[in-house]
Design brief:
By secondary structure, the chain is an alpha+beta fold. It contains four helices and eleven strands, in the order βββββααββαββαββ.
């Protein structure tokens, strides 16, 4: 994907180009097509429908989450005959609430957009820490995904930048690939 921190997700098949422009999620129901998201603190979200045989991967940073990229991805699965209740979700390595320090204004944006969501940030000595993983899970549950079908990797890319790249910790260092494919 040529990721743009937006809310577009695209369906791909064997006739699609190798790089999908201006998108932050890709979905396919075809075998042997590797779908890849590049991240370095943003959430890589893997989606699998075992009944309808469809997979997808989403690049979800704070901008994309605010713009609705997660909701758009689940809606596109439904357009391809999936039931949201059948979806299995994996959220891969990303920055944790322990390290994602943000402004009070950004916390306010999330509170406004996701009114009623719980535990989306923590505060300590005048600093605010956003929990993107918690927000993503609550979006998915509100979309109809069963919470037991959501697996969140409890790894912070910033705390573990010896294993994973962290944009914040390494000041733009590198990225890692999150890939899903049906055989």
């Amino acid at each position: 994907m040529k990721q743009v921190h937006g809310n577009v997700t695209s369906f791909v098949d064997l006739s699609s180009p190798g790089v999908i422009l201006d998108t932050d999620g890709i979905i396919t129901n075809k075998q042997h097509i590797a779908l890849c998201a590049l991240t370095a603190d943003c959430l890589p979200i893997f989606i699998y429908d075992p009944k309808n045989l469809c997979v997808g991967v989403v690049h979800a940073g704070y901008k994309g989450i605010l713009k609705g990229v997660i909701e758009e991805a689940t809606a596109n699965f439904v357009k391809k005959a999936s039931k949201v209740t059948d979806l299995l979700i994996g959220i891969g390595p990303s920055i944790g609430v322990c390290c994602y320090s943000v402004s009070r204004e950004r916390v306010g944006q999330f509170q406004d957009k996701f009114a009623g969501f719980e535990d989306i940030y923590s505060a300590d000595k005048g600093r605010y820490f956003l929990d993107l993983k918690s927000v993503a899970k609550q979006i998915l549950v509100n979309s109809g995904v069963n919470s037991k079908n959501i697996d969140i990797m409890p790894v912070c890319t910033s705390c573990n930048n010896n294993i994973y790249y962290s944009y914040r910790k390494e000041t733009g260092g590198g990225v890692f690939a999150s890939v899903i494919m049906m055989n």
